[in-house]
Specification:
With about 250 residues, this protein is mainly α. It is about 80% helix and about 0% strand. It has helices at about 5-30, 30-35, 40-65, 75-95, 105-115, 120-185, 190-210, 215-240. It is rod-shaped and about 185 Å long.
Length: about 250
Amino acid sequence: MDSTKLMSLLDQLDDEMDDLEESLVPLIKTTLSETSSKLPLLDKAKLYVLVTYAIESMLFSYLRLNGVKAREHPVFVELTRVKQYFDKIKAAETPAQDRTLVPDKQAVARFIKAGLAGNDKYDLEKAEREAKERARAHIKFEEVSKGASNAATVAQPEEQPEESDSESSAESSAEAEEPALESAAPPKKKSGKHGRSSTSSSGLSENASKSKASPKADKKAAKKAKREKKKAKLQTKRNKNKPLNT
């Protein structure tokens, strides 16, 4: 090696040693424990690890300068251990990232279902549960259908009185029309006794034939018989008032 280069390198080393002494003044004046007691926990760990790494690296350099295989020396093992502490301090400084992963519920359900597929007890419980649910649904459907049928049967008798009222009103209107028609028609002249007997016999025959009919027909027949009797009485009165032909 050229002597001129060696002298320049020695001068550089002297300058760096001076800078190092100035940097180590705060640590040299007081003990390491006193200095670290004023620091927070993370900074205290950094200080201890940094001092240890500086001492170990100086020993490693000294061994290499003396021609010793430093990588096979225990100092190299200590250096690697100190580097691991640096990694731990770095991990403590960086905040933990929020979890963005969300488990897939459908996939989990498939895994659970596949795992319980061969479980006979689970299969029996599942079958019983499904059978109970079907039975409850069937019972509820039957109750709803029965309620609807009962409501329909209650509604039918309520409609029947309305029909009977309409029928009675129709009958009364028909009966009111019949006297009007009879009053408009001219009365027939008959002899007294003959007319009375014929009208009474016709009324009796009509009553006998209509007695076999329905109650509504009986009412109509009774009313007609009364009208026939009235007509017969009027006819007899008219015949009496007329002069006899000689």
